[in-house]
Amino acid sequence: MISLHDICYLRLGCRDLDEMVHFGTRILGLELRERTATHAYLRGDNSVFNLCYIQGDASYDASAFALREYAHLQQAADELQALGIAVQWGDEAACAERHVDAFFEFIDPNENRIELVYRPHVTGVRYFPSRDAGITEFGHFGLHSRDIERDLAFWTQTMNARVSDRIGDGALLRIDPVHHKIALFSSDKTGVQHVNFQVESIDDVMRSWYFLQEQGVPIVFGPGRHPTSTAIFIYFLGPDKRVYEYSSGVKRITDEAGYVPRHFEMKPTSFCMWGARPNVKEFSE
Ligand SMILES: [Fe+2]
Question: Which residues belong to any copy of the VOC domain (predicted)?
C-alpha cells in the first residue's frame, strides 16, 4: 500500500528565472535559499525548498510527495510497476538537484509528472521571508484532471488519498488530517493547477489582498471563505500564468473513520460562501 506522508515540493518550469525569483521573493514572500544558472530554490518553511523554478520549458512541472521510510518508496515503485506504470529512479545528481536521499518519478494517468521522495532535506535555519506575507507552511497544490473519475480512482485507490469533499466534478483530497493537500480540478490540461501557501491569519490574507492590488498582481478569486475547508483565501496570478493562493484556517479532519465526504453543488457559492466570484473557469461552472 502506498502511503503518502506529506506533500514535498513542486518543480516548475519557467521562461524567465529572474522574473520568477522576483515574484517568489518580492510578491509571494518566499525566501530564496539557492540559485544556480538554471534553478532557483524558494521556501516558506524550514525545508531546503518548497518551489524550484527551472529555466527552460515553461510547461514542465513535477509534484513531489515524501514517503516516511525507504522501504515504502521501494514498495511504491513495485506497486506502480505492477499496474503497468513505469518508474524512473533518480541518480545521484538528480537526488542532489532535489536535495533528497532517494526518489523516483512516474507519469500519472493524467500525464502529470509525479515524484515520490525519501528524506527531503530540511535546514537548521529558520525561514526568513523576503516579504512578510505571514506564510506558515507550503499548504497544498491543485492538479489538472482530464478524466476526473479515472484520476480520482488512481489517487484514492493506488495513492491512498481520501476524499474530504467534492465540488461538482472537483475533488479535495487529504493524506493526513489537513482537509486537503491535493485538489483535482476537471480541465483539459495536465500538471499543476494552483499552488497554495498557508498564512497565519485572516489579517495576512487581507494585507496581501491590498498589497497584491498595489503591485498590480491580477487577483483571480477572493478574498473569500471556502465552505468546504473553512479556509479564508485569495488566489492570484504569477507572471508564469500559474495560479497562486494564500489561505488560512484550513479544517482538520480528526475523525478519520467516521468522516463522510460531502458533495457540494457546482456553483460559485461552493467555492466561496461570502459570494466572491472567480474569474478563472476551474472555480466556476
Ligand atoms: Fe487551494
Answer: 6-119, 137-249
CA of 156 from ligand 1 middle (Å) equals 19
* Ligand 1 centroid distance, CA of 78 (Å): 31
Same domain? 143 vs 260: yes
Distance 176 CA to ligand 1 centre (A): 16
CATH number reported for the structural domain that contains residue 188 in this entry: 3.10.180.10
Query: Tell me, what's the pLDDT at 285?
Result: 40
Residue 202 and residue 128: Cα distance in Å, rounded?
Answer: 21
DSSP letter for 155, please: I
| CA of residue 157 to ligand 1 center, whole Å | 22
Q: Which residues of the chain have pLDDT under 70?
A: 280-285
pLDDT given for residue 270 in this prediction: 94
Residue 279: per-residue pLDDT: 80
Residue where a domain terminates, one of 76, 93, 120: 120
| Residues 6 or more apart in contact with residue 236 via CB below 8 angstroms | 212, 217, 218, 219, 220, 243, 244, 245
The C-alpha atoms of residue 196 and residue 188 are separated, in whole angstroms, by 21
- Residue 107 CA to ligand 1 center (angstroms) comes to 22
Per-residue pLDDT, 1: 84
CA 201–ligand 1 middle distance (angstroms): 16
